[in-house]
Structure formats: structure tokens, C-alpha cells
Amino acid sequence: MAGKKKEASLQASVTNQEQWEEMLATKGLTVVDVYQQWCGPCRAVVSLLRKIKNELGDDLLHFATAEADNIDALEKYRGKCEPTFLFYGGGELVAVLRGANAPLLQRMIVEELAKEKSVLEQGGERKVKDDGLVDGEKKDEEETPQQSENEESIIVPASKSYTVAIIKPDAVAHGKANEIIMKIQDAGFEILAHEERTLTEVEAQDFYQHKAEEACFEDLVQFMSSGPSHVLVISQIEGSANVVPAWREFIGPADIEEARRNKPESLRAQYGTQTLFNAVHGSENSDQASRELAFFFPNFRTASVTEQDGEEAHVERTLALIRPDVARENRGGEILAQIHKSGFIVALQREVMLTEEQVRQFYFQHVEEDYFPALLQSMTSGPVLALALARTGAVHHWKNIIGPSDVNKAREESPECLRAQFAVENEPINQLHGSESHAEAEREINFFFPKQQTLAVIKPDAMEEYREKILDEIRGSGFSVTQLKEMVLSREMAEEFYKEHREKPFFNQLVEFMCRGPCMMLVLTKENAVEEWRATMGPADPDQAKATSPNSLRARFASDILHNSVHGSSSEQHAEEKIRFIFGDICSEAELTSDGETDTTILAKEQDYSADENTGMARSLTEELSDDHNEGMSK
Known about the structure:
- There is one protein chain.
- By secondary structure, the chain is an alpha+beta fold.
- It has four domains: 2-150, Glutaredoxin, CATH 3.40.30; 154-298, Alpha-Beta Plaits (2-Layer Sandwich); 315-448, Alpha-Beta Plaits (2-Layer Sandwich), CATH 3.30.70; 451-629, Alpha-Beta Plaits, CATH 3.30.70.
- The chain has 29 helices and 19 strands.
- A five-stranded mixed sheet has the order 1-3-2-4-5. A four-stranded antiparallel sheet has the order 8-9-7-10.
- Strand 2 (29-35), helix 3 (46-56) and strand 3 form a beta-alpha-beta unit.
């Protein structure tokens, strides 16, 4: 069983120094995706890595993800906003690639693997590379072409808006790509990036996942992977605050007949032939534009603040709070729109009802101030929306945007600032909070988004077909897998694991199901991990998940309420108890045989259930587990 696990695992997860040193001892070439904990590894390349692994089929090729935050050897890679891939052979760094340039990444893997095999077979010397990230470091002639292709980041001022445009395979096949690009430029749009690429089916499925429930989804995927497309990053035209509506107006309606009737000068009216083959794509809104940018251009970034010493400032985070009074006026959406417009990414978001004691803890330095009673009353009067905002110069930039803390001063001196715009009548307390410094930002983010651990289980129904996809989803969502164990539960263990449901009518069916095959038990670590994992899973009932959370794991991989693919703890206390049970002394190795399988004498026998029994059990299980899913977010 151990051998099977090793083959199935695409990227080893490295989260501490000890695991890092073990990885370096691996024979062959190891390609490491270095990431920051708050944003997770680069999901966009996972399907490419799997394709390369399957095509090469070489046991000397290994892939891993490494969390720079907790690994001493990766200290100089911390705070970097673009994907970075390190190539190691024999424990030595032999190549570095910055940015998710898929063709270059594939070529480098093939080339570096050939070099490493030559070293192992012929005993030559490896060409060790300096592991610094210093721009302008000396490169020999052999490395120069590689670096020039990849190291130039796409940079625009933070004040500009931008979106993704795709010239689709139909227009490219008819030789219209250059003609369309000229029209885009003639219309006043600025093209910040341009790449020709052919999407794989997996990439097309991921890109259009939001359309997965539509009847045309499979046809769309086949079409978009049928030939090369041109992917562009478009910036705003002169005088336009937001490029997305301007671009969508320019390309016209998705329906070709409607475009020809109502917008005959639009790109789709001129170059499209039918709804699927409508020549061009445009992001529907700013949020979708951000996701699509990350998908195609992970090294895309806004212009950063330059320090006095000339070094580039790193991406940083700050805490923003939208207080209850402005939330009650339903103006939170306006504030979020301003946040996105200002170049921030909302890295974490949480709505929480604070207690008086929590407010005192958070604002401990203000407790003795005259205004504190009013602040306390405001902060406990309803839910607070907490946001961790990320961008270069985040702390300074957010403070400038929100303006002076005194509402009257904000109105008089800076009427355009957010505190002035969103002030509540007859309320002396401003409605927006911002961190005062980098240190305060980290303290405050940890207060609202503490690092948590939760237990995740990939259930028997999902293990064979969906395990790797779920693991990729876990890593891509920014979770660190700190412990992992594949096991078959004995009946006794399953009964103890689900003991809180012991008196429920579905208990026996649930226990029987969980004993039918191997499960994968994982300890996931992340800020707000319990709630984040439950959101990633989706509702317990797959039908409800498909309706309300179509991108969730249960919507995509579950078949019914019993076979719903994954499990997650309902609270932090519940997570601690279950982790201790599975990974602590309570989980005795004596319960497993030497090959990791539970003795068949204690496995429950499979039973057949009638449709009526299953329906009744499903209703009962849905009601029970929905209570867990709908638990409020509490501190």
C-alpha cells in the first residue's frame, strides 16, 4: 500500500525544515514549487506537472511544494509574490524559474532531468546555481535566454484596472488574431501582456468551472482546447475607472445574433459565428478578472512601492474592519468595490459577532480613552466584517485610503476618503479600521484569523477516483498538510469517531460505509482552517452543494448524502478531539496490520439497504449534518 501511495502522490508537501532536508536527500531531480502560506502553491501548473510525469514516466523525477514561511533554507524567498520553482539534484540547487511560464517550465524539467541522469550515470559535476534572488546576478551565456524569457514581470500602476481577454480558437484559426489586436489598440485599450497558448482539456475545465452546470459546458471545453488562443491582459482606456465594463461593451453580447442586431460594430458581431464560437472572451466582473489573471499570468503584479534604498517592497497584508453600523446600511458592497478598485486582494474574509471582552482585547491600547465606551458599543452592536487585504505597501496604502480616524476631521480635510464617505449620521465612531503598522497588522490578522488545525477525511467513496484531485484542491486552497495517514477504520474506531451520532437512526449505515475501504486522514493548517475547510467541502447534501456551492468538493465529487466524499470537523474543539484520536496515542498501531490494512475479521460486512431505508437515512443525515454545516462563525 505504501508503494501505491507514493505513485499516486504528485507533489510531496514540505512544511518544515526536517521535511526539507529529507526531500533534498531524494535521488534524482526534484522540482519544488516555493509558496507563501497565505496564498498557497501555484495551482495553475498542477495539470502540466501531471502531464509531464505521465509522459516521461521517470522514477528520477519528483515534484514537491514547499512553504517558505516555515523553512529556514527558504528565508530569502519569503514575501515574493510570483511563483518560484527550484530545481534540485543531489541536494544542490541547479536551476531557478520565476513565474508560471508553462512552456519554459516543461522545457526546463526535461533538460534538467537529462542533465541529472547524466551526472548519475557518468559521474560528472552538477552546475550549481546561486540560490539568491538578486536581480542582475551574473548569468552565463547558456542561462541568459532562459532568464530573459521569464524574469520580466508584468507590472502596472496600482491605480489602473485590468482584465483578461481571450481571442478564441475559431478567430485564431481564421487568421483574424492580429486584425482583432489592432482593433483593440485602435479603440484605446492598452495590452499589458500577450501570450499564445493552447489550453489542455483540464485547463479549460478549470477555467470555465463556473459554467460546469450549463448544458454547453462539455462543448465549450472541447472547443477551447481545440487549438491555440491568444490570451491578453487589457488595461483601461483613457478616462475609464474600470476597464471591465468598457471591454465588455467593446466585445458585445455573447449571443452572436443579439450582437449583430444591437452592437454591429462589436468584435463578436464582426468575428463570431455562433454563441460558443463568438471569437473573444471577456471577464464578467472585477473579481472574475482577478481569478483569470492569476490563472494565466501568476507573475502579474501591480507596481510596488520603492524603498529609499531602492529595493522593491514585498507584498504585505493589513487588517481592515467594516464596523456594524455601516454594514446595517447595506453599504459593505460599496466598500469592497473600492477595495478591489484600489488594487487590493482580499486574502481572508470573515464576519464575526464580537463579545465585549474580545473588543477589549483587540483595542487594549484604547481602553482608557474617552471614546472607548462609544467604540465598544459600536463594535458589539452587530456583526463585524474582518478582511485581510494584500498588496505592496498595504498598510500605508489602506491608511491613506480610509483617512483620519476623527470623522469630523475626515469630512473637513479629506472628504474623498472612505471614513468621510461612509460616516454614519449621529455616530461619532468612524466605520472603518486599519492597522497602524506592519507589526500591528500581523497581530490583528492573527486575532481575527488565528492559525488553526482541522481534521479532513477523504472517504472511501472518493479515494480511488478523486483522491489526487482533492489533494490538489487542498494544497491549491492554501492549506498546509501537516499530518497524513491512509488507513482502513475498524468498526470500533468508526463507532468512536462518530460517537456523537450514536443515537441517530443513520449511525449503523454511516459506520458500515466508513469501514468499507481505505480513508485518508489529514491534519490541515491554515488561518481560520475549520471554517475554510467546511466552505471548501460545501454542504453535506450534494444536491444542496450543487445548488449553492457548485465549485465545492461535494458538489463535484459526491454522489449522495452518504457517499459525500469528504468529512471535516465542525468546530475547533471537535477538530482537536478527532486529531488526537486519529494521530495521538488513542489510535494504536495494533489496530492495523503490517501492510496498513485493517484485519478483515474486524471489518464490517457490507449490507444492502432498500431505497426506502436509504431515503429515510439520507433525510435524517441531511438534517443532522446540516446543523454542523450551518454553525455560526464564533471566536
